[in-house]
Design brief:
- The complex is a heterodimer of chains A (about 230) and B (about 230).
- Chain A has about 230 residues and is α/β, with parallel strands linked by helices.
- Chain A folds into 2 domains: about 120 residues, 3-Layer(aba) Sandwich (Rossmann fold), CATH 3.40.50.300; about 80 residues, Helicase, Ruva Protein, domain 3 (Orthogonal Bundle).
- In chain A, strands 6-7-8-3-9-10 form a 6-stranded mixed sheet, with helices on both faces. In chain A, strands 2-1-4-5 form a 4-stranded antiparallel sheet.
- The model of chain A has no long low-confidence stretch (mean pLDDT about 90).
- Chain B is an all-alpha fold and about 230 residues long.
- Chain B has 8 helices and no strands.
- Chain B has one domain.
- The chains are: A alpha/beta (about 230), B mainly alpha (about 230).
Amino acid sequence: MSEAAIKAEGLTRHYGERVALEDVSFELPAGSTLAVFGANGAGKTTLLRVLCTLLRPHDGGLQVLGHDLPREAHAVRGRIGLLGHDPLVYRDLTARENLSFTARLYGEPKQQIAQTVDAMLERVELDGRADEPVRNFSKGMLQRLAAARALLPEPELLLLDEPRANLDPGAALVLDPFIGPAADRTRVIVTHDVEYGLAQADLVLGLNLGRAEWFAPAAEVTSDQVRRLYK
Amino acid sequence: MTGRKPPGVFAAAATILRKDLRLELRTLETLTATLIFTTSTFVVFHFALSRDQLDGDLAAGVFWVTILFASALTINRLLANERSQGGYEALLLSPIDRNALLVAKVGFLFLALTVLEIFAFAAYTLLLLGPGLSTEMLALIPVCLLANLGLATIGTIVSALATDSNARELLVPLMTLPLFTPLLIAAAEATTPLLAIEPNVVDLGQWLGMMALYDAVFVLLASAIFEYIVED
């Protein structure tokens, strides 16, 4: 088995008195895909936010890409791509300006920025709308731009929170090569789409009220077992 | 992307500042609000004081109180704007040093205050100021620059502390006003002789020195704590 991209032991996170994650443990080998299932409020989004360093764990151990979090968070930022509910782009900038800004912050050499951004806009089929303010975009276009922003720095670890939300079937096909198995990245996918999640995953984590109900290889988990989490 | 190396603090700050200026020039949210506020405040003072012209300590006090309240408007939106525009968390996820965000926001606030003061002084001269323009008034430049550095640094810390709070509009003035007071006193004292009927440059050094010291304390404090403020 390859080196662990994520190693969580007894991971715990609170929001004030409320427990969002409690004693969650799992290990995800590099290059594998983990699907996380659970009803609303189960702690899925909190887990992603802890993994990407936006939230600190309150207890337990967490290693991401070989670094202890939160102590070495600076070493993994920039190596993680987050595609979540919010597109994390500036609505009064254009798509091109947003991606150029991202490229600069991630240290893309100046002379390559325009070329890299143009190539990415073409890949997500937004090249025709590249110079329009993002505030004019539909939700599906925003999701494609958000994916472009997350993928531009070529992250080793991709955290996907309902990645196909707001996408029509055509747009989902556009993004599949970048966020699907062909992307050849370690992925954590949070989704309510049981069939999609199971088809994508090597490992599956079931969360219920912040606790891990089970953690198992995808081949050993049935869709009925996942659906019981939502009852 | 190949050949990547995260930018240093000042290069990243310049990138963020350019983005902020571009957004401001596109939306004019901050500038419009503060300029209208400043002009309205001068008009209110004109009627409230029943005076056509002000000079000396009263002129200095009215000018700096107006700048102080106008700056609170900008501070209120400084990091909240970053959130409402949508890109704040993407900034926190990027590999840059968090102090780049501090430098960029201090820089933005400093520039916004400088533009505001240029406009405010012109409006003040037309609406309320008794003494005519004189070369002594050029000494206002270092006073304004030092005041702006302090207001911008303190404002950025407060804005970062308050940005996640629902009571942001309440917290910002409550936190900034006590911290701004020493700076305001020094700026007003330094400005008083410059706005006298016969302007003169006296005792400027001690007030500039006090402002520089106050600024230095907050610049050091901000660089030490900002990373922890923007952390979860």
